Amino acid sequence: ARYLTCSSLLTASALAFAPCCFSSIRELAPPSIISRTCRGGHVDPNISSDTILDSLLSRARQSIDENRPDEAFPTLIEAYSIDPASTTIAGLFQECLTLKVNLQVQRHREAADDGTDLSEAEINNLLQDRMGLASLCIDKEQYAEAGGQLRKALDETKLWLSERSLDGCNDSDYDWAAQLDRAQYLLYRTNAGCCEWTSYFEDGDSVRRSLREVSTQPRLLLHPFDALKFPCVGLASASRVAQSYALRALNAVGVNTKEMTACQIGQTRRRLVQVDRHSQGSSHEGRIKVGYISPDFTSRHPLAFLMQHFFRFHDRKKFEVHIYSLASTADDCEEVRAIKSASDKFRYLTKQTPAQMYQHLLRDQLDIIVDLCGFAGQSISSEMMASRYRLKQERIGDDIKFPTHVSYMGFPGSTGSNHIWDYSVFDRTVLPEEFRDHYEEALVFMPHSYFVNSHRTAVAQNVSDDDRRSIRLKYGISQTAFVYCCHSRPDKIDPVTFRSWIRALIRAKDEGNSEPVLWLLRSGKEMEANLRTFLTREFGQHLDSLLVFADIADREEHLRRLACADLFLDTPAYGAHTVGCDALYSNVPMVTLLRSANDPSKHSFADEDYEPMHSSGSNPERRSITTDKLASRVGASLLRAVGLPMLIAEDMRQYEDLMVRCAHDIDWFENLRERLRSNIGTSPLFDTERWAQNLEASLLKMATDREAGVSYPDIMVLDNDPFLVDRSKLPPENIQGT
Q: Does residue 562 contact residue 587 with C-beta atoms inside 8 Å?
C-alpha cells in the first residue's frame, strides 16, 4: 500500500504498475477527512478545506523536521485526499520518503557493524521506499536520482538474497522475484525517459529474461503500454502481457479466471469477409446505436483533438451516436464542445463502479460499443468492458443480445482477449497477415490507414515564410540549415536510432554544402545532457552544435514550429502517431522504418549488420530495432495513405540514405514536398468523412452479424477510389482551433 500511494502521485509512472492506485489514496485516507472534503459530511461550516489542509501540511512538516517520517506519511495521505494536484504535497512526500530511506540505510549499516541480521520485512521496506521515491523523482524529471534509487534497490535486494542462498522464488511472504522485476521495469523506463543508455542493452536483456521466465502467464508488473514501448519486448511477449491484463480485468469484475487458463494466442482461425464503402446495406431494423467510451475526451489528451470532427460525419440516417466520457471532471474545451455537438447523446459516467457503468450502457440498448481506451490509462475502461462476460454467465438462457465490443485508437496493440473485445480496428500496414496469429480478437482492416484525425477541419495552415524565419530565430536555428526534426517523446528514441541519425547528419554535412541540425523535444535538463554526452563520447565534441532542443509547448506553438522543419524523423521502436499527422499536415515529409514482415531475423533484438562509428571496446553493441509491434508501424501507414511510400525504409542503412538524399538532392526533395502539399487536400489520410464511411461499412457488417447470431469474422473494408478532388478549402467557419 505504501508503494502504491507513492506512485499514485504520478501519471505515467503510476499507471505502469498500479492502474487502480489513484483510488487507493482515498481508500487509505481517514474517513473523517474524506467526509469533510469529498462527501459533504456534517462538519463545522467555519472550518474550510484550506484550513484543514494547512493544518495537515504543518503537522507533516513538523514530523519530517523531527525525523518522524512514519508519522508524516499518513498525514500526507490525508492532505492528498484534499488536494491531489498540490506540488507542495508531492514535495513533502519526496522529503518524507528520502528521510525514510536514509534512516533505514543508517539502520542497516548499524546492523552490519553489530553483526545483526536484517529481516525480510526490513529489506522489503527499503526496496518499496526506494521505488516510491524513484517514482516521485521521475515526476519531477529527476531521472538520475530516480535511476540511482532503483539501481541501489536492485543491488541491495539481490545481495541480501544471495547471502541467504535465495533465488527470489522461495516460500516467504515476499515475492522477491516479482519485486525485482518491478524495480527492473521501472529502471528501464526511467532511463528511457531521459535517454540514459549506459546499460541500455543489459537492462533490456533483464526485462526480456523476466518475461520469458513467466511466459505462460506474465505477472502483472509490466504494463501493456510499456510492453509496446520497450524495444526489448517483442510482439509475442507484448500480446501475452495484454492477455494477462485482460484476465485481471475479468477477475476484477467477479469472473472466476482460475479455470480460464491463458489460451495460446493465435489458435483461433477466422474467416475473412469483405465489405465495400459504397455498398452499405444492412438488415438491421432502425438506426444502429453506437456508443463511444473514453476517459480522454479532454483538452489534455490528443484523442479529443484527433476525433473532434469525426463524429459529425456519421450518417445519421443509419447511426445513432452515443458518447460516454469517463473523465473525472467535465471539460468545456473546443474539442469536447465539437464532440458533444456531433453526438445524439453525451454523458459523463463517473463515481460508479465499472459494472454499474456497463449496466448504464445496457439500458441505452446499444448495438455496438467502441472502446477508445483499452489498456491505456487506468483499468476502469477494461473492467467495464469485461462486465459483459460476467453478465453473460449470469444470464445464460436469457434472450439478451449484448452489444458487440470494439477496441480502437486508445491502445495500439492486441487486446489479448476475445472475451472482452470482439474486434480491434487496424489496417494491413500496421498488421500484415504474417503477424495475425499474435492477435486473439477479430480484426477490422481499414483501407489506407486505420489512424483517424481531424486535421483538415481543425488545423489552419497559416505559417508564413516570415513566421518560419522568426521561429527559427527564436530557437537558434540558422535560416539556411536543413532541419531534421523529431518532436516525439524522448523515451521513444533509442541508441541505435540516435546513432543512425548522427551518422546521416555527418554525411549530410561532409558530403554536401548543407548545414544540418537535429531538432529534438527536451524532457528535462538531464535528457539533453545525456544526449550531448553520448554524442561527444561516440562522435567527438566538435559535433555538439548539431543538436538543438525545444521545450514542450502548447499545441499552437507545437504546430507553428513543426512547420519550420524540413524533414521529420520517425522513431522505429514506437513511432509517431499524432505528431506524425501533425508533421505531414504541416507539409513536412517524414522518414520511417518498416522492416520486411517476411524476414524473421529482422524481428528480434538481434545484431545489426554494421557497427556504429567511433564505438569503443572490442564488442560494440550492434542491435537492430524491430518493427513487428503495431505501434512501430503507424508511420508507414500514414505515409502510404498520404501517397509518400518512397520515404519508408526497409533497414536503417536505407533510412540514413533517405535522410542524406533529402538534404542533398534539392530537386527531388522539392518535388517530394510539392507532392505532399498537393496530397494533403486529396489523400485519404486527411479525409475524415471518407474514413468515417469506411468505418461505417464495418459497423454495419457487425450489426448485421449480431442480428443473425453470426460469429465474428475478420472484416476487410474495400475502398478503391483514387485520391479525391481537393475538398480542403472549406468555408471559414469550419476552420477551427489553431
A: no
